[in-house]
Amino acid sequence: MLSSTFSYPLDTAFPAGAALALVLMLALLFTAPRTCDTPLVPRIWSTVNSRIKAWVFLLNGRKIMQGAYIESQGAPFYVDVPENRYCVVSSQEHIKEMDAAPQSVLSLLAAAEDLIQPKYTMKGFNWVEGRQGTEGATLMRTLRNDLTDRLPEILPELRLLTSALVDEHFESLPSENGAKVFDVFPLVRRAIAHSNAFIFFGKDFSQNAEFIKAGVSMVEHTLVISDTIRLLPEIIAE
């Protein structure tokens, strides 16, 4: 996702960002307490190399993820990105382990907040800081109570909707040498828009082409803005 989103505007942002990251890393290395026996030069190179790889992710994220996945052979693996470090899991065992983790250890809501950056993409709304306020309380009640109670009713129809969407998309693709190849992300955007429309606005809206078009556009714009925000200092993001 990040690679496709940021491949075009980084011609100028990448050199400046890489230079800034290099300066910050060197400053940290020279000012940090000497708590390890590793020589300074290898430590500098290791740190600089990891940050270069993190910024390269913006340009070549898809290939980096694919290579790390193949090399891991099903085990969890880490991917460095400019603003964070992602731990990626793919086995059913680890997915179930994450699903069973308590809210205090692994919060899907906190992860969504980091991804979407609602403070900037939703006009000042911050659902973590606002938990005790009206907006935060409404969101918590909707996600944790109302939607959870309706899951037995929603999931069967949502599965049918998503399955039909995938089938429709697959059937519309041309076949080459008996195989069909397509990018997953555009399909994911449509699936998110259709699912949100169905869950929050009902079946009629989920089948309204104009409404879905607006929903897909909103998803894409939100991701572009949030990805950009995470790369900027907070004072600039404001």
Automatic annotation (TrEMBL):
Major subcellular site: membrane
InterPro entries: Cyt_P450_sf
Gene Ontology MF annotations: heme binding; iron ion binding; monooxygenase activity; oxidoreductase activity, acting on paired donors, with incorporation or reduction of molecular oxygen
Keywords, alphabetical: Heme, Iron, Membrane, Metal-binding, Monooxygenase, Oxidoreductase, Transmembrane, Transmembrane helix
GO cellular component terms, semicolon-separated: membrane
Subcellular localization: Membrane
Cofactor section: heme
Transmembrane regions: 12-30
Family recorded in the similarity comment: Belongs to the cytochrome P450 family.
Annotated protein name in UniProt: Uncharacterized protein
Higher taxonomy: Eukaryota, Fungi, Dikarya, Ascomycota, Pezizomycotina
